[in-house]
Amino acid sequence: MITPVILCGGSGTRLWPLSRKSYPKQFAPIIGDQSLFQTSALRLQGEAYKSPIVVTADQFRFTVTQQLQEIGIDPGAVLIEPTGRDTGPAILAAALHLATTDPEGLMLIAPSDHVIPDNIAFDEAVTAATLAAQNGQMVTFGIQPDQVETGYGYLALDTVPTGAIEPVALKGFVEKPDASHAAQMLADGRYLWNAGIFLFSVKTILAAYQATSPDMYAAVQAAVAGAQSDLGFLRLAPDPWATAPAISIDYAVMEKADNLSVVPFASSWSDLGDWAAVWRETNKDGLALSGAATAIDCTNTLLRSEVGTQEIVGIGLDDIIAVAMPDAVLVTHKDRAQDVKKAVAILKEKSAPQATCFPKDHRPWGWFESLATGDRFQVKRIVVKAGGALSLQSHHHRAEHWIVVQGTAKVTVGEDTQLLCENQSIYIPLGAIHRLENPGKLPMVLIEVQTGGYLGEDDIIRYEDIYARD
């Protein structure tokens, strides 16, 4: 059996404004009703696979477990990176953790944001790679190119693939090319897109790290050895982790190894690296419409509204991408989709919150969003999942008024605790110690009106928290 290792710590800025640092693309339902992370996890289920190991960042730990719970998957372990150090240290940490229980086992490295519609074809490719991995090969998976693509790295082969699903020798790696070079490689036929998916045994990859990156091995080994369990998560030790280089597994290990194979994969695949890729995966007769979107005399265009009450209308558009969020709108020519990350960088320079902050602020107990703001007031919608509870807290600078609009709220203010049903409300004076809980089996929704001189999220003093947050 194979242990999947799902990597989900990236930010995905090229799918802004839907994907942001606070809530990146892998957790969004970009195609269909499930998130990319959920579809990736479901792809790695079945008799051939053990429970997955997930490597993620601290801020996403509850999102990971909640989304897995929604699809009925119990992870084998969730490793928390103190800081993002790229795929090299992340994969090594998973291998070292797995070595304590299954040192002879196989591990399949899978990003959390890929689209692979044909699960049967993917399983066939993994099966074809298994024997080579058991025999000490490090197997990567290469995608048969079907267009000129400058956003991917490439794998070079000695010969043109025959179409057979079997491992072949890997000649080398090619960096992301310019358009001219990409066109040459497409015509040549001996180059595949590098999918960033790997299969190898635990002992083989550990030996490779020791041979090619001994300093990283020592640092990550110490981080794993010093890891602390926290509410079912495994927090890697931050001090040794900080000394590990931030580097991909390609640069750290793969490009230096001589025991590499590649399995060509000719079925559909996309890493949804930009909005043009989303258009390719979702368009029907050239149009990709999502949400409240209307196209009139448009061709080769993507229109997407993420707000049910906000209609986006395109008239006479060609090769245009338009994405509407509550707080930001993107409009770009499809050929410039890769440049969205430049826009995010400019917004960061302007200190625009839209650069990194998602309109919905996801928390372990649910989520909230701001509906209206003004001088000394803010109105929020707060959704608390069944059994969820906000921390016992107080505020220095604001008072709050809560109105329940759906479900039942259990509210504590000082020494008093009471249940509020729909259309009931309560006032939380400035400085009062309070808590909000959902004792029901359905989500609870309330409207919060804040008043005061400072309304920032950092004006919270926590006294108790079931999620062990600071």
State Rg: 24 Å
What is the helix tally?
A: 11
Number of domains: 3
> Can you tell me the residue ranges where pLDDT is under 50 for at least 5 consecutive residues?
none
What's the CATH first level of the largest domain?
Alpha Beta
What is the third-level CATH name, the topology of the largest domain?
Spore Coat Polysaccharide Biosynthesis Protein SpsA, Chain A
Mean pLDDT across every amino acid position: 94
Mind telling me which CATH architecture of the largest domain this is? Alpha-Beta Complex
Percentage of residues assigned to helices: 10-25%
Number of strands: 28
Going across the major beta sheet, what is the strand order? Answer: 18-19-20-27-22-25
Distance between the termini: 39 Å
The portion of residues forming beta strands comes to: 25-35%
CATH superfamily of the largest domain: Spore Coat Polysaccharide Biosynthesis Protein SpsA, Chain A
Kindly name the structural category.
alpha/beta
Main sheet properties: 6 strands, antiparallel
Give the overall shape, derived from the CA principal axes.
globular
What keywords describe this structure?
3 domains; 28 strands; six-stranded antiparallel beta sheet; 23% helix; Jelly Rolls; 33% strand; five-stranded mixed barrel
Summarize the structure.
Helix content is 23%, strand content 33%. The chain is built from eleven helices and 28 strands.
